[in-house]
Amino acid sequence: MSASPLLEVRDLRTHFFTRAGVVKAVEGVSFSLEKGEILGLVGESGSGKSVTGFSLIGLVDPPGRIASGSIKFEGRELVGLPPAEMRALRGKRIAMVFQDPAATLNPVLSIGQQMTLAVQAHGRASDAAARDLAARTLTRVGIPDAAARLDAYPHEFSGGMRQRVAIATALLHGPDLIIADEPTTALDVSIQAQILAEMKSLAKETGTALVWISHDLATVSSLADRVLVMYAGRIVEAGAVGETLRAPRHPYTRGLLDSLPAMARPGEKLNQIPGTTPSLLSLPPGCPFAPRCPRADAVCATDPPDVVTASRLVRCHHPLEAA
Length: 323
Ligand SMILES: Nc1ncnc2c1ncn2[C@@H]1O[C@H](COP(=O)(O)OP(=O)(O)O)[C@@H](O)[C@H]1O
Ligand SMILES: [Mg+2]
Fold this sequence. Notes:
alpha/beta; Rossmann fold; eight-stranded mixed sheet; four-stranded antiparallel sheet; 10 helices; 12 strands; 30% helix; globular; binds magnesium ion
């Protein structure tokens, strides 16, 4: 066992160099992840969650690129890695599951054909051995009668089943890290809960670490060990999931929790955070949440400090009291 974490991200900046200007989608993100750990990455739409995920797996396309920072996977620097070496890691050691399984599944190939190709992309395997591995992996994600269903095409599966196939494809090589970007958002609640439970036991059984990207705090609270809250490309709060969501210290995390339907009493209006997420094209200096924040004052026009306690990080001039 090495002492270094599975993944260590330091001061990551991923920018899009557009004709309108530089969109700073990820702006100084740092975190680490241990083997088998499940990290929830939450925040409103446009906060930089997906771009963070794409950065980790080396899939940021022009006009975007990693402008600076470091991503170490098992101690090996991924920023600046030659594309061929990144491709060798992708799918094998680090896999990604997208919100829409159509991004992964090819409509003209049977499930068995495409999973066989995925197996053979990273090593020699006979068709029979690859199909066998595909069937066993489909069984692990809760697809009944998997061997018989290998000859089905994606359109013959329900949305929930297609997403299970995408997850199984990510699991084929026993990756060390899976980045899942809103993989259950399009599914109904009961299927979502089932997939969450399966992902959690898989991570714990196999030691696969998981970065679970979601705008849904409820999902993350039932799945993750730790949570990172993102706003305007930055991490504004990070900590153990139970404690952080029970007693948030950043006013933005508080606002996200207060806007959950489960928090409102029947007949009461939801407490939406006022205003909208800022454009990442030209943020004024200081705390990007200040214009929407009930606690903001003049000092918030300067960059907020990182307030670090035993198990929590809060980037705020006026954090809420620790519980
Ligand atoms: N190809 C692109 N060109 C320009 N800006 C982009 C591109 N992709 C993403 N962005 C910007 O990056 C920011 C973060 O996006 P994203 O990571 O998709 O947010 P989230 O996943 O949290 O909803 C957004 O402001 C978005 O407009
Ligand atoms: Mg996204």
